[in-house]
């Protein structure tokens, strides 16, 4: 039996050989393609990534009642970028249930953020004492119906790292390229999921790389590239699609939500011409109006306008968090719970349980705001427009109390796609109560773009309304009436 280091080296070599051959296949035609497939089949047992099954996690009593896998996949020219991931098999029927890769926004926010605070199988109990936060099962975990891949991307996020300093420089385009390479290798390593319907999704900033990634996957599927990833659609929540429109629509949203008076809205709209991004500093009327607007929303929490605006400074530590949760509930802020995951992930026993490679990561931060990252896709509307011609399904949902990515901005770019309305605006329900509103658009043949608002939710909806979004996803993936 091969030792672990030799096995890893051999797997990396085989993977690199197959990868180069696949590229030649693309250029040389069917002869090379057949050779590539034969090589893949012969060497399949050797190409598994160094991944591990996690049976227990600190903070959770007993064995995990779901199958959790963690590991790294190397991408880049020399595999210098090592992307950490968590994979949870569906708790229903993993061999036929869809596979959903879920991105977290930021850029720079870890997969553990979604794993514990959005849609993963576990959540953190805020009422705890001791060094390790307690973990409990999430009754609204999407893993009840989906195979979920969570990935720390871009490089430098969470537990992902680079073997070289240059490898830490990244941008939106590299996010797409690295994820595509990740998926190619992951599906080679997990052939039993090759025929499952595959979806890409994510919230907030990840709306930008999702569109070009889905396009790349769809083009590869149509071309018959190996492995043939069975891409069926995308799911995006409060997505960053057009930065310009998001900033502009915040002013209109503030007016709609009575945060600014009608007189100021009419004045700023006239004096700034509806453009609050490219403000001329010499235009005193526009500048004055925008300053008045900024002052009025200064103390509003843009993530959820009805919740308090709270400090997230480094001075707010684990001890202060415990004090505020246990003794001074009036200080409660949703963002304080995010400190829990930092406390948990920086514990040595947790890192061993997750099989984190020693010496690759210093302090873990839920959101790393010091990335060497460039946002080079400020608008991806054109990509989403192209995807309306593909044989895929789309779900876009937004929160009506989110000012950071206002639902008005999302509705604006969806309308710009010029799709015909298949089902007019109506309410949708959970437990007999209005959970939000939806409108469905016809794309290609029997494929649709479903747009949904989630009533009373903030950015991103499942953090605030997990039950409602759980039912939304359950209905959408089962092609049921939302």
TrEMBL record:
Entry-linked InterPro entries: AB_hydrolase_fold, Peptidase_S10
Source domain of life: Eukaryota
Residues passing through the membrane, by range: none
Pfam family, one: Peptidase_S10
UniProt record similarity statement: Belongs to the peptidase S10 family.
Protein name: Uncharacterized protein
């Amino acid at each position: 039996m091969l030792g672990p280091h030799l096995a890893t080296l051999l797997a990396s070599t085989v993977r690199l050989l197959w990868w180069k051959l696949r590229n030649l296949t693309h250029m040389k035609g069917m002869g090379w393609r057949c050779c590539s497939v034969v090589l893949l089949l012969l060497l399949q047992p050797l190409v598994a990534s160094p991944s591990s099954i996690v049976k227990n996690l600190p903070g959770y009593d007993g064995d995990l009642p779901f199958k959790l896998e963690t590991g790294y996949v190397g991408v880049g020219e020399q595999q210098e970028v090592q992307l950490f991931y968590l994979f949870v098999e569906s708790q229903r029927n993993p061999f036929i249930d869809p596979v959903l890769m879920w991105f977290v926004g930021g850029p720079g926010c870890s997969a553990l953020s979604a794993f514990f605070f959005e849609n993963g199988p576990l959540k953190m109990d805020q009422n705890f004492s001791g060094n390790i936060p307690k973990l409990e099962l999430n009754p609204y975990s999407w893993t009840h119906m989906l195979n979920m891949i969570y990935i720390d991307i871009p490089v430098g996020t969470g537990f992902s790292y680079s073997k070289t300093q240059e490898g830490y420089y990244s941008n939106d385009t590299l996010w797409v390229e690295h994820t595509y390479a990740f998926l190619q290798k992951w599906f080679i390593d997990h052939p039993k999921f090759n025929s499952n319907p595959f979806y890409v999704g994510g919230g907030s900033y990840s709306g930008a790389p999702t569109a070009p990634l889905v396009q790349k996957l769809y083009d590869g599927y149509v071309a018959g590239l190996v492995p043939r990833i069975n891409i069926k659609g995308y799911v995006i929540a409060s997505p960053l699609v057009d930065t310009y429109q998001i900033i502009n629509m915040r002013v209109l949203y503030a007016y709609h939500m009575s945060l600014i008076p009608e007189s100021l809205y009419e004045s700023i709209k006239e004096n700034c011409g509806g453009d609050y991004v490219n403000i001329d500093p010499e235009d005193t009327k526009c500048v004055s109006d925008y300053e008045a607007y900024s002052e009025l929303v200064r103390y509003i929490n843009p993530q959820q306008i009805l919740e308090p605006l709270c400090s997230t400074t480094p001075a707010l530590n684990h001890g202060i968090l415990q004090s505020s949760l246990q003794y001074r509930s009036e200080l409660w802020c949703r963002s304080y719970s995010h400190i829990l995951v930092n406390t948990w992930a920086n514990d040595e026993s947790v890192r061993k349980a997750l099989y984190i490679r020693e010496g690759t990561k210093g302090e873990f931060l839920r959101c790393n705001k010091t990335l060497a990252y460039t946002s080079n896709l400020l608008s991806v509307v054109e990509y989403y427009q192209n995807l309306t011609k593909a044989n895929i399904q789309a779900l876009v949902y937004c929160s009506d109390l989110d000012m950071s990515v206002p639902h008005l901005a999302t509705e604006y770019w969806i309308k710009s796609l010029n799709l015909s309305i298949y089902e007019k605006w109506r309410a949708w329900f959970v437990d007999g109560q209005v959970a939000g509103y939806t409108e469905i658009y016809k794309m290609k043949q029997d494929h649709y773009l479903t747009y949904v608002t989630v009533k009373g939710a903030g950015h991103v909806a499942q953090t605030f309304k997990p039950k409602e979004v759980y039912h939304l996803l359950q209905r959408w993936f089962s092609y049921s009436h939302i």
